[in-house]
Structure prediction request, 424 residues.
Amino acid sequence: MHSIMAILGFYGVSDEYILSKIIDDIDNGTVSIANKYQMNEVVMILRFLKKQSTHLPQIEFKKITSKEERFWNMIKEVDLSRMNDQEKEEYCVEYINGFGFRNIREWIKKIKTPYYSYAFSVIQYILVKTNHYDNIYEILYIFNTPEKVQHDTFISLFEELFVTIRTQCHLDSFIKIIGLCVDTPKYFSRKQILLINEIYDTCQKVKGVVNSNESETSLFDKNILMEVKERAQQRYDEMKRKQEIEEQMRKKRQEETKRERSHSRHSTETQLKSLYLEDTSERNKKENYYHRLSSRKYEEEKKKVFSLDDLPGFGTNELRVFDEKKGSKETTQNKEVSGSLLPESSEDEMFDIKDMKHHQNISILLKRPKEGIKYIQEAIEIGGIQSYSYENQMKELMIEFETPQDLQMFLRTRIIGGTNSKTF
Prediction:
């Protein structure tokens, strides 16, 4: 079926007889799937075919739609928390390979055939989070950072594609795929995200100036790829050095604070005496103490600048890496599908950063304080966050990043789209 879909997509086949024949064969032949992981592959192919068949009579189109819904409902969400590390990694590899991932490297080698373009479609389909359950973040992160099972990752495929691009069409498709990764950094480690950003920036520099005709040589050779990887490694090393320095400074400040507290600590009796006059009665002493204590606390709260650290269960060092919410599965009627055979993903939400490459601070106006949690979580997941604070009166969240590049990575995520914010 992959071969058929590659040809249909590459040549834009829309003949009613051919498509109806394929639909009938699938309708009559696809009864059940022995390998549960291959149901992902079947659903993907059916969605590709449905995209090609929107002009067919309703009765034919309904065959493919009902088939797709039936197989999609057979796919169950798996609770990874019940597995050990070995089982998790094995499951994630089987899950992604269930989309035909293990065939992609061979398709990439067939540059002048329909399989090459089809490889872009399959990669993009897998990376679109709405084609999966909510645990796709953890699945792809484990898949892309193998420890127990050695296999190709999306990073190795991106490197393979990078040195085979020959046309503007191929470049545009590749930029879309890399853009999805920039937009969902939770799929990768921080080191991998730095490499993805370097690849993305390199591709953007030549976008629009590439000859539309297919060249005999690729736009980027292996030397350029090595330079890109070296730049990413340098950024990663610099980031690690900063983290080590900051950790040393943090520990030093903690030790100094402990020493200051131990030297300035007074007895309870001394503290009480400082709050009232010596010649008052014992009862008045107690009343005066508690009255002053509550007044002082009120004044401190009144002047206090609210910090997101005060929100329940939230702290910079305690954030979970993965979303573990049990989201319900979306119906196929409400599901957007991406890929070169699918509707193009919107790029309107991508933040324009071309005039702010030296900025590393962002100010976001919030309606409610707790809205800031999602922005802080996203910033910490990306990495490179220096500090953050929230001003209660203005409802303004301020985030300071370590470098302008870290801010740019944050601005490329869809979470910042549509917000009332500014950088400086």
Summary: Residues 265-283, 301-355 have pLDDT under 50 and may be disordered. The longest strand covers residues 385-391. The CA atoms of residues 43 and 70 lie 9 Å apart. The domain at 308-336+350-423 is CATH 3.30.70 (Alpha-Beta Plaits).
